[in-house]
User: Fold this.
Amino acid sequence: MDHKKRIDDFYSGKLSPQQAQEFLDWLESPEAEEFLSAEIIQLWSEKLKSQSISWDNNPLWLKIKAEKSGFAKPFIHKSLSQQPVRSIWSWAKYAAAVILIGVSAYAYFSSQQPQGVEPQTELAEASKWITRTNPSGQKTRILLSDGSTIYLNSASSVSYPEDFQTNRRVSLEGEAFFEVAKDPEHPFSVEAKGITTTALGTSFNISTFNRQDKVAVTLVTGKVKLQQLGASQELLLNPGEESLLAVDESNPQKYKVDTRDRILWKDGVLKFQNTNFPDMIDILQRWYGVNVKVTGKPSQDSATGTFGNNESLRNVLHVLSESMGFSYQLNEKEVIIHFN
Assistant:
């Protein structure tokens, strides 16, 4: 491998992030130590052997000492006897690795940052958040480090900090059910489309699957407060209450609901209750991970029915087709619904 070309490519930004990381790992290997030592020793020796050039090596030594402690400053004898030169070579071998590794890492990561941004700050921020995403047709349960649990619905995503035990914040897109571990000193908050839901120890459901771009928050146990982005007003929910609100809602309201219906999805139960046809299609696509195409004029009838865990899509379509008057074709991940 041409190591000189690799170094040139590194400094000119031609390496991919993976290749750059491999290069930095190589710099710490015995192979790199040998290669770099030979290079710097050659340069150092040329300076020492040149009697016509006055060269002060002290600034370089101070630079090395600042980078790495534990080295003794080499003694350079005027006569360049054999023993002092060997000492210099032995010391320079380690000094070369220290300098080049530090400078290389700094040069690379600095070149990857936009101007005006502190590299270390941006890297630190990028490493603090974890994101979990479910595609359509998949549901997962996420156990958090504080003991809380997130049931994440299909076509949904959550993000949360790595230091979650002391920084209990969650960002949600889609739908999730939360079982929050009690910790009065560290409130648990969820942000979804500009609506922040805060709880100490409780269980609640949040859904952003609303065609009007609203957030539905349903409280099962405990107590939560809702707050819109940029607003000082708070809305408190008690168990069995739900609120459907947008970030610019002028007068947030709450109402009583059957919370069991709101969280049936968590146990794999699919329920339609007077669900209009467009919403029914959205749910089927998310639930089963399929693409639904409709031909003809859809019925104005609503979908109603409850389907147990692991109910096949074909059985669900059969029941709904009987009540809503359509025929269908099921081809792997595509469903075609026909209205006469």
Summary: Confidence is low (pLDDT under 50) at residues 44-57, 63-99, 101-124. Residues 82-111 form the longest helix (30 residues).
